[in-house]
Design a protein that fits this description.
Layout (H helix, E strand, L loop, with lengths): L8 H4 L4 H16 L33 E9 L4 H18 L34 E7 L37 E7 L2 H14 L4 E12 L28 H7 L15 E10 L1 H5 L3 H8 L36 H5 L10 E2 L2 E7 L5 E11 L6 H11 L6 E11 L12 H5 L1
Antiparallel strand pairs: 1-3, 1-4, 2-3, 2-9, 4-7, 5-8, 5-9, 6-8, 7-8
């Protein structure tokens, strides 16, 4: 039987001249990433983002609505097999992010007696802004693959923070993949197919679904709210902040690991919220804890969300508008040598905990140039002093080195690590 040509999800939707023009514009945008980009915007929620470029998509890409994050353990001990998997994953990701199927014969185009190249649940769906971002955990740099001497200093294990109760079964991992999209089925489909391709070489360690982005990564996006009802990530790094991104987000060759130049370090934290207790807390106390008003998101004592907080201003009673232990004060860059993060976390609700309470909270995601100088001091300050700790609990943690982007079809995720 002669196999049919690959079936494109975009073609199944009647993808025509307007879509072709969008893809053409995307290709131009991808080439521009080889210089100092801005990152391209998809023209609508259904359109694709470029896959190839200097930086991986899914970092400064305008944050999508849905997340499927997965951490894998590598089960093969063969370096060549791991490299081959990364090459296969890259080829599949290049297709999936453009609204195509994972393999060349797709879900229905191959021989009937063979397993399909794609699982098929995304047939008929557009690209939905899918991005796939890969990272390498510290455990990958053990003795299995000859990488021990290439572990970046910035990938040092995170310290134990006061009060954290981490579950090791949903922490860490050798390799992570972050799938973000505007359609949850598209994100889940992508992770499912990468896991299928990796069968026998990797196994899923843990995964997390997320909805409702909790940060904006572009000035074109409105600031979203977390499950406590407050606007989150007002002072986040944005893709338009080229100079700040260079200083605070992208790793550079002079940092000590040249293979990471153009990459970034990813910290994940699953933060359980006791929303039932929070919901019984007075509005005044909620606002004092955050240091912002709940409606507009303005710093206390100010009127608008993006007004600069005044940490010295006092009210008529002589008390500080923003208390000394308010979340906004403890996390502010001015308290940490101007260290900044690019956050792109998501809300989660994982059913109930069996005691009549929602298992809900924030899946925190933050990218940075060096976690030792950025995430660690900020989180240590929060862990020690933030009154918000009465209502939250950190239950999982991950740290990954996300390599630079894939330049073209001859490149692959992690090439600079394995071949550099």
């Amino acid at each position: 039987m002669t196999p049919k040509p690959p079936v494109s999800r975009r073609k199944l939707l009647g993808f025509g001249a307007a879509g072709a023009a969008a893809l053409g514009a995307g290709a131009v945008a991808a080439r521009s990433l080889l210089d100092e980009p801005p990152v391209a915007h998809a023209s609508s929620a259904s359109d694709p983002f470029p896959f190839y470029g200097q930086y991986q998509a899914g970092i400064v890409t305008p944050a999508q609505d849905r997340l499927h994050f997965v951490s894998f353990d590598v089960t093969t001990d063969e370096r060549a097999e791991l490299v081959e998997l990364l090459q296969d994953w890259t080829a599949a990701a290049a297709r999936l992010t453009q609204g195509r199927e994972a393999g060349s014969y797709g879900a229905v185009g191959g021989a009937p007696e063979a397993a399909p190249d794609d699982t098929g649940e995304a047939l008929g769906l557009p690209a939905s802004g899918l991005t796939l971002t890969v990272g390498f955990g510290g455990s990958l740099f053990d003795g299995r693959f000859g990488l021990a001497g290439r572990r970046p200093a910035a990938l040092a294990d995170l310290p134990k923070f006061p009060g954290e109760l981490l579950n090791p079964e949903i922490s860490g991992g050798d390799v992570c993949v972050q799938a973000c999209a505007h359609d949850p089925q598209v994100a889940v489909h992508a992770i499912r197919n990468l896991a299928r391709i990796g069968f026998g070489k990797v196994s899923v360690r843990w995964s997390q679904l997320g909805f409702g982005r909790t940060s904006s990564t572009s000035r074109a996006q409105a600031t979203p709210r977390n499950l406590m009802g407050f606007k989150d990530g007002t002072n986040n790094l944005k893709l338009e902040d080229s100079a700040l991104l260079r200083d605070h987000l992208w790793a550079a060759a002079q940092d000590g690991s040249p293979w990471m130049a153009g990459g970034s370090y990813l910290v994940t934290r699953k933060i359980r919220m006791t929303v039932e207790t929070w919901d019984r807390t007075s509005l005044a106390e909620q606002e004092q804890i955050f240091g912002r008003n709940k409606g507009e998101g303005a710093p206390l004592g100010k009127k608008a969300e993006f007004d600069t907080p005044d940490f010295t201003a006092k009210g008529p009673d002589g008390e500080l508008h923003i208390k000394s232990d308010a979340h906004v004060r403890l996390a502010h860059p001015s308290a940490h040598g101007e260290a900044r993060l690019l956050r792109r976390g998501y809300n989660f609700v994982d059913g109930s905990d069996g005691l009549g309470r929602l298992d809900a909270g924030l899946f925190f995601i933050a990218y940075q140039r060096d976690p030792r100088k950025q995430f660690v001091p900020v989180q240590m300050s929060l862990a020690k002093s933030d009154p918000l700790n009465e209502y939250i609990k950190h239950v999982s943690s991950g740290l990954f080195a996300c390599p630079p982007g894939v330049r073209d079809a001859s490149d692959y995720w992690g090439r600079t690590l394995f071949e550099g």
